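Bug #77: duplicate submission created two jobs. Keeping one. Sequence:
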Amino acid sequence: MSSHRGGEGAVVSSGARRRRVTIHDVARSAGVSRQTVSRALNDKGEIQDSTKQRVLDAARELGYQPSRFARGLVRQDTVTIGLVIPDLLNPFFTEVAAAALAAAGERGWHVVVHDTSDSPEKERATLRVIGSQVDAVIGYFSSPEDEIDRGTRGVPVVLVGREHHAPRFGSIRIDGADGIGEAVAHLAARGHRRIGMLDHQGRPEPSDRCAWFAAAAAAHGVDADAVTGAHQSVAGGEAALPRLLAAHPDITAVLTFNDVIAVGALRAARRLGRRVPQELAVIGFDGLPLGDLVEPALTTVSLDIGQLGALAVAEAARLLAGPGESAAGASLVVRGSLLVRGSA
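Kept job's structure:
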């Protein structure tokens, strides 16, 4: 694991007091992170020539010389990425992590995985330490961007599943609007006019997937006001479906926030004596291989999860290289499409 700490070299004046120039001074002067300074001074890869030259110029102007102790810390030839995952027990996040690990491995990078257990407190605790441990961060975060910015202490950050605003951030956005539109069209074509949704209950506001569902339902003249929150787990789906059906007994189809919730809904439907898909159609979201293992097999809005992990690592590499002509101004996007199996 790369843990770069500033060395101390030349002395600079600060009012009446003189102090040594640190790697943080060079980073501030060059407008980059201290990890980028380390990479530039040690002639490592994953950094653009223009950025490297800016760092070298700043170091020369300030008279910075790393100590022998600092050189021992920074002369490591690998990049270390911090991967922040909400729940490794959820197979979707496990697959994202596996894809990111494979993509990082192809570059010879190390990956440190942090599981926040979908807890805001654990996420904040992770943010307090991760910035000093890694060269870049990839992750799912619910915290405000300014809080992520403070916690990651200048290292590049790739947000997964949401857009970014800070210039040193990148993002991989999931766009399921078309896929959910296909799902609602599929259900409407089979005569469903009252469709419910099991949304992610851990969010303060309805999810993007719920908004996409509402828009698609309106476009197809389908009633979509029946929404119940569910924990992101099989048990969460199993507990939430009876609540949804009790409040809206005329529902004939259900869209879920993700596949694990959908699997729980299938179990609950069986327990309630509702035949799937004859009496209750169920559609998930993610496209996990798990959906092929249940009976009936799960119809779902499928994502290329491998692409999601690989794009996140590629975006981290772009950010590590520093600002330049190749910088992408907008989020990268992974889109979902309907995968029809037996449950709808």
